[in-house]
Each structure stands twice: as structure tokens, then as C-alpha cells.
Amino acid sequence: MSTSPIVTFDAATLAFGSRVLWQELNLQVRPGEFLAVLGPNGSGKTSFINTMLGTTALNSGTVSIAGAPVRRGSNLVGLIPQQRPFGDNVPLRARDLVALGVDGNRPGIRIARKAVHTKVDQLLELVGASAYADRPVSDLSGGEQQRLRAAQALAGDPRVLLCDEPLLSLDLHHQQAISQVIHRQAAQHGAAVIFVTHEINPILPYVDRVLYLAEGKFHLGSVDEVMQSSVLSRLYGAPVEVLRVNGRIVVVSGDGQRQLPPDGHEHAEDATRESGK
Ligand SMILES: Nc1ncnc2c1ncn2[C@@H]1O[C@H](COP(=O)(O)OP(=O)(O)OP(=O)(O)O)[C@@H](O)[C@H]1O
Fold it and tell me: Which of 120, 125, 140, 153 could potentially form a cystine with 144 if both were Cys, beta carbons 3.0 to 4.6 Å apart?
């Protein structure tokens, strides 16, 4: 496996108007590496992903994929997007959505129908979606739809897999299953995984490094280096306590009264997990 970085940020700064999301970020992500990106709402996690998709431009510095400047539509990059329910007017079955990932984004290359069918079946099985392969996507729950998005992103066998809160609306069992599938992509295919999440515990066994964004600052390092009371309190500019309980990371407010997600903030959407569309 090559040890050259597949993703390189060099002195990268992103701001919207006077609001700086991060500055002078130097980051190299290597093939097979699993990078978790944490931070409160609005800290710039999706924007960070967008810079690697070529849809958001840096204010200064550079980002490159496989040594070349980022460009839109690169088939080196796969995306599991942040969840938005499919509307009733999406006339696709679950398997059609996954098939788009297999042959839908390669202009000029048509893969034989049978080969597409076989690959789609494999992907559906991988993410635990075989049981609803022929149902319309608009009839599926948020968690079921999310598993299809994972299958679609994996279909192109990307070298960089960008995951924008892929565990949202999944129950615990499927959080673990999807995390494992994504990790396998890194371990077996040498893909770099960049995984935005508010839930670090399901991916703790797989994470190599954490990039934590908050208040226009960042901290990059191993889980043990970043998930510390002193580091998070400094990033937030307020007391935050990080505890380890039975191998899980628990973040509590400085007064010790409230448990927070690992990004230190509460989220209304946490209550909607696998609650349906
Ligand atoms: N194109 C844009 N123009 C102006 N401001 C933007 C733009 N895109 C994002 N922002 C702002 O930048 C900040 C970071 O947004 P972003 O979506 O990256 O945050 P996030 O960390 O992914 O948040 P969440 O956890 O809520 O998904 C937000 O305040 C957002 O309003």
C-alpha cells in the first residue's frame, strides 16, 4: 500500500465573511486512514467536506487529492451525504439508487446489466438492505435510506470516502454495522475515510485520528490526545469534562450536570434516531 498522502491540506483557511471556521490547517490523510471529524453545530464540518468535493473554495492555502488540486466530480472521491429524506416524487426503488452508484457516474462506460445487478445485490447485502431492495425509496425510513446512501457511495470503490454524519437516524445495531462496513472499505481497499460525526463511540475502534473543530480553532491528534478535558475546554473557551465510562467517551458540561455528545453540544435530531421518515 502506498504511503503517500491521498488528501493534503496545506496552510488551509476557510472563512465566510468575518466568520473564520479554521485557519492554517496542515493535514495529510493517508490511504487506509480513518479520520473522525468532530465539532459542534456550525463549526464547519460539512464545509470541510465540501472543500474536498471542490464545492467550497478555501480562502487561502490548498487542498489536493492524490497530488492534484481538488476538482468537482472526481471519481476518486465518494460521499455519504448528510441525510435529507427522499421526497414522494423520487420514482426509484432501493436497488435503482444503488445501481446509480455502480454505473451512473462513469460517462462512456456502461457495465453489463447482469454485472450491475450482481454488484447491487452484494452492496445491498453489505449494508443490510436486501430485504427492501425492491421497495420505493420514498417509502423507507430515514435509517433505511441512509444505508442505501452508504451502499451507493461504496459502489464506486472510492479512494477517499467522505461521510457526513452517516450514523444519523440509525439505531445502535445499524450504527455499528455501517461503521464496520465503512471501516472495511479503509482496511481492505486502502480508502481514506473522513467521517463527520456527533457520535464517536460507534467508531472508536476504528479511528486513527480526530480533527476537532470549534470556535474557529481546531485540534488534530489521536483520540487520546484530542478527547481530553484540557483540550476541549481550551477549544470551547469554557470548562468541559471528558470521561471514560466502560470504554465509552462521555463529555459532560463543566458543572458536571449534563451529559453531552462527544462534540460537547446537544442536538435535537438525536431524539429522531430511526424514528421513520
Ligand atoms: N456558502 C456559505 N456561505 C456563508 N456561510 C456559510 C456557507 N456554508 C456554510 N456557512 C456557514 O458556515 C458555518 C459552518 O457550516 P457547516 O455546515 O460547515 O457546519 P457543520 O459543522 O457541518 O454544522 P452541523 O453540525 O450543524 O451540520 C455555519 O455557520 C454556516 O451557516
Answer: 140
Q: Is the ipTM of this complex over 0.95?
A: yes
Ligand 1 pocket mutation, candidates 14, 22, 43, criterion most atoms within 8 A of CB: 43
What is the CATH architecture assignment of 7-272?
Answer: 3-Layer(aba) Sandwich (3.40)
In this prediction, residue 269 carries a pLDDT of 38
Task: Give residue 107 CA to ligand 1 midpoint distance, Å.
Answer: 32
Residue partners of 231: CB distance under 8 A and separation at least 6: 212, 219, 225
What's the rounded Cα separation, in Å, for the pair 84 and 89? Answer: 14
Strands 217-221, 240-245: pairing is unpaired
> CA 188, CA 124: separation in Å to the nearest integer?
18
Domain ranges across the chain = 7-272
**pTM for the model:** 0.88
What confidence category does residue 102 fall into, taking pLDDT thresholds of 50, 70 and 90?
Answer: confident
Q: How far is the C-alpha of 195 from the C-alpha of 207, rounded, in Å?
A: 9
For ligand 1, the distance from its centroid to the CA atom of residue 165, given in whole angstroms, is 14
